[in-house]
Design a protein that fits this description.
alpha+beta; two-stranded antiparallel sheet
Length: about 70
């Protein structure tokens, strides 16, 4: 019984739920139209494809190259 209590006392406390709120700001310094060649040369970690909808609701594939 004493061994059971010692094991319980040595165990880490239960995790608590923490809620965090943050804000971010983005500044587009220079936007350009990229060519297919630039897309293929950019590192995969910098490339992203998303689908957005135009004003009629039609889906559009948008390719983003993020430079940091």
């Amino acid at each position: 019984m004493l061994l059971l209590h010692a094991g319980h006392a040595a165990s880490p406390p239960a995790a608590t739920h923490v809620q965090v709120r943050s804000t971010v700001s983005v500044r587009i310094e220079r936007s350009v139209t990229a060519s297919r060649k630039e897309w293929e040369r950019a590192p995969k970690a910098s490339r992203r494809e998303i689908v957005v909808r135009d004003e009629r609701g039609n889906p559009l594939l948008v390719r983003l190259i993020e430079y940091q």
